[in-house]
Amino acid sequence: MKTPLILATLLAGALCTSAKAATPPYTNFIVAPDATTFKAAQPLHKGDRLLVQSPSLLGYEVLLLVRCIDGCAQTEIVRAWNGRASSRSGPDLYERVTIQQDGDYYFAPNEIPVTLPDANFRGCLRSLPLHKLCSDAHAVRITESSVDASWFRVRLSSGNWIWVRATLAAPKQ
Description:
Layout: H1 2-19, E1 29-31, E2 38-40, E3 49-54, E4 61-69, E5 74-82, E6 93-98, E7 105-111, H2 118-127, E8 138-139, E9 142-147, E10 152-156, E11 161-167
Antiparallel strand pairs: 1-2, 2-7, 3-6, 3-11, 4-5, 4-7, 7-8, 9-10, 10-11
């Protein structure tokens, strides 16, 4: 006789859980007037999570996540990615980032010229995990942006897309 009661309790719990409204992803991002960066329309807070994806980011393309310090008088590169140029299926970039400090953050797409000597090109790639961008890199223009219920998307001048969305942390009480 306990089994039907347990099943009924589990079913009721599942229905209550699914009845809760899921927090929709935050997709309110804006492109800078010079079309070289994009950012969340509001400052991000500790605990907010970003999901960053690009179906085919090229090996010489670089995407930076940058934190503004003192109203962007100074900046700090929080993350740097480049395309894997791999043959395996799936996006070349798919990563979650948890914001560690409150503040303004922006994304800056760049590219490393493929005409650099091999040693310089490899040096530029090695600087990325150190959260640095080599001086040979230059900004890439954003040619288009769009938003839907799930993603904010920007198209780069190379034709590749970057998709971003956020899950905002619960407000502090």
